[in-house]
From TrEMBL:
Tryptophan synthase beta chain-like PALP domain: residues covered: 89-390
Cofactor: pyridoxal 5'-phosphate
Name of the protein this chain belongs to: Threonine synthase
Tree of life domain: Bacteria
EC number in record: 4.2.3.1
Length: 422
């Protein structure tokens, strides 16, 4: 199932992917027509979308809808994408985090709180873009392998679009994420194995099922572009400027590389001043192949077997790991990892200082930022943004043994006063 720009899709309709013009291999820059393909046949490296943006003005974006489609002229989506039923993710809040900044010892800190998306994680962004592209290519079923958040987003987006969904998850996934996927009544399949086993299975199925769009396999180049909208929103919410530093959690690594791509595109288009910025990566120690490669000065990422409570980041063989290293080194950032105990404390620190309850991935981000600040790698005087990508209600098991009532008392005021010591 292939279609080049200007040609017809399998349904006989002209292909409309907005400003997208072709796919380019990340290693050697080989170019090929737009198609539902994710690896270059020339150099076997990942493919990503190339564009002809034309002139884009801030006012064009600001007059758009209050969701990611305000950036449709920067994405590989149809020109009428906002008119087709979708979950309308994006435009989540950027929180000035002064209390957390004080606790961490930094001057100015912002939290990009993506828990406000339709299924409460940033995955709604990437799935919305993937679905829009998949529709253009003539697919009729939305599918994915997932560690949880993507499962929620795919099942919900397919339901909203009136599509079938097929979602593959590790059988050990958190109960909350299983339930919040199953509720949409798609085909949810639990697989005995870890995420890397599930991902291999999805790749096999994608080759056999011509009408299934696996968002992070055969339509991955389009899917991954959705992460750029995090960069676009941060810049717009800061008054059309780039932050000096940003901390991004690493699973496959795609989000971090696309945040960088988004910042660069804004600068190249003159929508922001192309000022320097540093990107920092965060991993859990129990699944830290990219952090380990960075620490050892390697440009190759060695796969590991995940063992961490941060299951949404538990990808032992991250596809974009080498490109994460490139971005972090180029921007002068760093990558580090934190223990499960530090992850829990990161969740609790963000909750008690800013009233934001994040899942384990956000705990990784906060705890890693703390570690990098203490190590002198994050400049405490530079404006910093933390990406919080998922809601804590998805990973209640991570904190259930760490928090609870301060006391249990009979129903009278004196008992409450005694329990409070006041």
């Amino acid at each position: 199932m292939t279609a080049a720009l200007g040609s017809k899709t399998s349904t006989g309709r002209a292909l409309d992917l907005g400003p997208a013009v072709e796919l380019v291999s990340k290693e050697e820059g080989h170019r090929q027509p737009l198609a539902p393909e994710f690896v270059s046949a020339e150099d076997f490296s990942p493919l990503e979308v190339a564009y002809d943006f034309g002139r884009i003005r801030r006012e064009d974006i600001e007059s758009g809808p209050r969701n990611i489609w305000r950036y449709k002229k920067l994405l590989p989506v149809p020109s009428n994408v906002e008119e087709i039923p979708n979950t309308e993710p994006g435009c989540t809040r950027l929180v000035r985090a002064d209390r957390l900044a004080k606790a961490l010892g930094v001057r100015k800190l912002w939290v990009k709180d993506d828990t406000g998306n339709p299924t409460h994680s940033f995955k709604d962004r990437v799935v919305a873009v993937a679905l829009a592209a998949a529709r253009e290519f003539g697919f009729d079923t939305l599918a994915c392998p997932s560690t949880g958040n993507l499962a929620n987003a795919v099942a919900a987006a397919a339901a909203r679009a009136g599509w079938d969904s097929v979602v593959l998850i590790p059988s050990s996934l958190e109960r909350a994420k299983i339930l919040t996927t199953a509720v949409y009544d798609g085909s949810l399949i639990a697989v005995d194995g870890n995420y890397d086993d599930v991902n291999r299975l999805a790749t096999q199925l994608a080759a056999d099922r011509e009408t299934w769009a696996f968002v992070n396999v055969n339509v991955r180049p389009y899917y991954s572009e959705g992460s750029k909208t995090l960069a676009f929103e941060v810049a717009e919410q800061l008054g059309w400027r780039l932050p000096e530093q940003i901390v991004v959690p690493i699973a496959s690594g795609s989000q971090l590389t696309k945040v960088d791509k988004g910042f660069r595109e804004l600068g190249e288009l003159g929508l922001v001043e192309a000022s320097p910025y540093k990107i920092f990566g965060a991993q859990a120690t129990g699944c830290s192949p990219v952090s380990s490669a960075f620490r050892d000065g390697h440009d190759v990422v060695q796969p590991v077997k995940p063992d961490t409570i941060a299951r949404s980041l538990a990808i032992g063989n991250p596809a974009d790991g080498p490109y994460v290293l490139d971005v972090v080194n180029r921007t002068g950032g760093a990558i580090d990892d934190v223990s499960d105990e530090e992850v829990v404390e990161g969740i609790r620190l963000l909750a008690r200082t800013e009233g934001i309850f994040t899942e384990t991935a956000g705990g990784v981000t906060v705890a890693t930022a703390k570690k990098l600040i203490e190590a002198g790698k994050i400049d405490p005087d530079a404006e910093t943004v933390l990406l919080i990508t998922g809601d804590g209600l998805k990973t209640l098991d991570a904190i259930e043994n760490h928090v609870g009532p301060k006391a249990t008392v009979p129903p009278n005021a004196d008992a409450v006063k005694a329990a409070l010591g006041k």
